[in-house]
Amino acid sequence: MPAQPEGDPAPSDGALPASAVARAADRTLSLYVHVPFCAVRCGYCDFNTYTMEQLGDGVSRDDYHRDAAAEVRFARSVLDAAGAPPRALHSVFFGGGTPTLLPARELANMLGQARQSFGLAPDAEVTVEANPDSVTAETFDVLAEAGVTRVSFGMQSAVPHVLRVLERTHTPANVPRAVGWAKERGLGTSVDLIYGTPGESVADWRTSLEAALEMDSDHVSAYSLIIEDGTKLAAQMRRGEVPRVDPDDQAEKYTLADAMLREAGFEWYEVSNWSRDAHGRSALENRSAHNLAYWRNQDWWGIGPGAHSHSDGVRWWNLKHPLPYTNKVRQGVSPAAGRETLDAQTRYVEDVMLGIRIRDGLETAQLQPEGRKAVAGLIADGWLDGAAAVRGTAVLTDAGRLMADAVTRRLLDW
């Protein structure tokens, strides 16, 4: 797992500077709840997750929902003390790890605490990530009754040998069954895929896309495999046990995904995410509101070990391991390990890096002079939409989505 970022010491009472809440009335507030437990740790994963064997003594999954609920209450007290106006939650996202390793009733209890502490906006999106092997039909009965609106399923691939390389242990046949259970209860569904796994052919990738489309979901995420230092898969690559990721192969697979998804009625709204009109909701309504809050640099509070939070340019992150996290929460003090206040240039860089990835694009007027000068060349290269630029927005073309990082560097004059 990656080391935590360096930063300033975080105050034990969690106190926020006035600048962090000065514009709160004009900003949405979301809640991320990190569930750090997994049955098996996948070889490509560098998230802050633990199997029960890794946790050791002193940490119990059975108590986690109470500790997370305590941090939710703490979050509300900190925002109140800072003078932030009351804000109903724009979105809630249970991620991990594997949230569905916890009993559905415990997820419902945590959501209930969020509702009690903050309230939910009338159109609030509430998402739970799910492993297809750790749910039953009754799971979705409980989640739907609790107010969950959306389930994100970690499918990754439909091809057994690809799943073995990723060390994903779910049974492929369980994915459509679980998606069907969620849809039967009126829940929105997303299917998450990974492409570019060593040994995955284009035909394998097409098979996974076809399987995902057969599930009649309203949202698909397709992410290129990124090999992070410190993961088991990175070590296997260094030893030559598996081939390295091929960027050209990934580009071909991204293009295939976009073509197949578009043919099936999906439209991209972020470089790696597509939604469509389905099940009585528009493509706009089927976008991930929670992830869009990240990409638009809104405010969110991260609950749980290693979770990150952000409030209008102030960012902080919790202690990574569940044991010290739990000890802090039970003492009634902040579990934050550190924090930082972003300067204007850092905030600008992040706005460009995130904003260029979404279909809504960036207002060219917000770009610094070097960025505005770069727009004409990017249009000539076919990477930015000329008509959108005339209307004052920098929007990636289909070709530009493949070059999003290069576009960002040029807009930032790097």
TrEMBL record:
<protein>
    <recommendedName>
        <fullName>Heme chaperone HemW</fullName>
    </recommendedName>
</protein>
<dbReference type="InterPro" id="IPR034505">
    <property type="entry name" value="Coproporphyrinogen-III_oxidase"/>
</dbReference>
<dbReference type="GO" id="GO:0051539">
    <property type="term" value="F:4 iron, 4 sulfur cluster binding"/>
</dbReference>
<keyword id="KW-0963">Cytoplasm</keyword>
<keyword id="KW-0408">Iron</keyword>
<dbReference type="Pfam" id="PF04055">
    <property type="entry name" value="Radical_SAM"/>
</dbReference>
<dbReference type="InterPro" id="IPR007197">
    <property type="entry name" value="rSAM"/>
</dbReference>
<keyword id="KW-0479">Metal-binding</keyword>
<keyword id="KW-0143">Chaperone</keyword>
<dbReference type="GO" id="GO:0004109">
    <property type="term" value="F:coproporphyrinogen oxidase activity"/>
</dbReference>
<keyword id="KW-0004">4Fe-4S</keyword>
<dbReference type="GO" id="GO:0046872">
    <property type="term" value="F:metal ion binding"/>
</dbReference>
<feature type="domain" description="Radical SAM core">
    <location>
        <begin position="23"/>
        <end position="267"/>
    </location>
</feature>
<keyword id="KW-0411">Iron-sulfur</keyword>
<dbReference type="GO" id="GO:0005737">
    <property type="term" value="C:cytoplasm"/>
</dbReference>
<keyword id="KW-0349">Heme</keyword>
<dbReference type="InterPro" id="IPR006638">
    <property type="entry name" value="Elp3/MiaA/NifB-like_rSAM"/>
</dbReference>
<dbReference type="InterPro" id="IPR004559">
    <property type="entry name" value="HemW-like"/>
</dbReference>
<keyword id="KW-0949">S-adenosyl-L-methionine</keyword>
<dbReference type="InterPro" id="IPR023404">
    <property type="entry name" value="rSAM_horseshoe"/>
</dbReference>
<dbReference type="InterPro" id="IPR058240">
    <property type="entry name" value="rSAM_sf"/>
</dbReference>
<keyword id="KW-0560">Oxidoreductase</keyword>
<comment type="similarity">
    <text>Belongs to the anaerobic coproporphyrinogen-III oxidase family. HemW subfamily.</text>
</comment>
<comment type="function">
    <text>Probably acts as a heme chaperone, transferring heme to an unknown acceptor. Binds one molecule of heme per monomer, possibly covalently. Binds 1 [4Fe-4S] cluster. The cluster is coordinated with 3 cysteines and an exchangeable S-adenosyl-L-methionine.</text>
</comment>
<dbReference type="GO" id="GO:0006779">
    <property type="term" value="P:porphyrin-containing compound biosynthetic process"/>
</dbReference>
